[in-house]
Amino acid sequence: MTTPTPTTRTWSPPFPLDLGVVLGPLGRGPGDPTFRVDAGVWLTANTPVGPGTLHVRRADAVEARAWGEGAGWLLDGLPALLGAGDDDSAFRCHHPLVEQARRRWPGMRLTATGRVWDALLPAVLEQKVTVSEAHRSYRELCRRFGAPAPGPATGLVVPPTPRAVLGITDWEWHRAGVDGSRRWALVAAAQVAHRLEGAFGMGGEAGRALLRKVPGIGVWTAAEVAQRAWGDPDAVSFGDFHLAGIVGWALLGRGVDDDGMAEVLAPYAPQRHRAVRYIKASGVRKPRFGPRYAPRDHRIV
C-alpha cells in the first residue's frame, strides 16, 4: 500500500525552543499509541476537519509533516503547538530554584493543541488512580476504539472520538480497567463534546469553568485539559496526589497541602502553572515516608 504524500511546513521560531520539553506533556506514558518520540515527535489528533498525524523535528528550523484529513489544520496550528502564543514576558521568579530552572530551560514554553477532547479523555482516565493504571487504560482504549493514524508511522492510532466513546459497552470499560465514576464522566463529556471545544476560545478560568459544568470534571481535570489545550499559564492542578508535596518541598523545604501550595504560588499569579512547570523540571521530589500506592485492577471479577 502506497503511503500518502504528506503536507509539509517549515517554521523558524523567534525564540529558543526545546521540542521535548514543550511537547512532553502531551505524551501519556510508555507505549502511548498517540504519541512517539524518535527522530522528532509524532502525535495524532482528532481535528475539527478529521483525523490527522503530525511529525515535527528540529533542524535549522522546525520541519513538520502531516497526513490525513486534519493535516492542514495541524500545520496551521504548528506555531501555537510549539508555544508561539505563550507570553512569559511578565513572569517573575520569586524563588532561587525557579530562577535556576528558568535559566537552565530557556526553551520551555507552554503548548496549545487547540484540541479539548483529546486532552480531556486521558485526563479523566487519570482521576484518582495511579499513573500506571491510567496509562494502561488509555493505551487499551486507544488501540481498541481509536482509528489507525494516517501516514507511515506503524502502530500509531488516533484517540477515540466522542462517538466511539459513547459506543463502548460496560464490559469493554471493565476490560480496560475503567471504574464507574470515570466511565460516567467520560460518557457525560462525550455527549456534549462539541460544546466543550468552546472552552478553547474562552481560555483561562472561563474555559475551565465550562469544563467543570460536566458531572465528574472538577478543578484538577479542568486544569490538566487547560494546560494542554490552550496553554493556560495559571491552571494549577489542585487536588493532585503528589503536586502540593513537590511544590512544598521545592520552595519551602517541607510538605504542604493544597491550601499551602496556593499560598506559596500566589506571587506567581497569573502564571502559577508556569512556575509549577519549572519546579517539576528542576527534579525536586518529596521524600517518601511510606509504601507506594498500589495499583488496582478493576478487571478482576
UniProtKB/TrEMBL annotation:
**Would the keyword Magnesium be found if you checked this record's keyword annotation?**
no
Give the record's keywords alphabetically.
Answer: DNA damage, DNA repair
Q: Record keywords: 4Fe-4S included? A: no
Under the heading InterPro entries, the entry gives: Alkylbase_DNA_Glycosylase/TA, DNA_glycosylase
Write the protein's name.
DNA-3-methyladenine glycosylase family protein
Species, as recorded = Saccharothrix lopnurensis
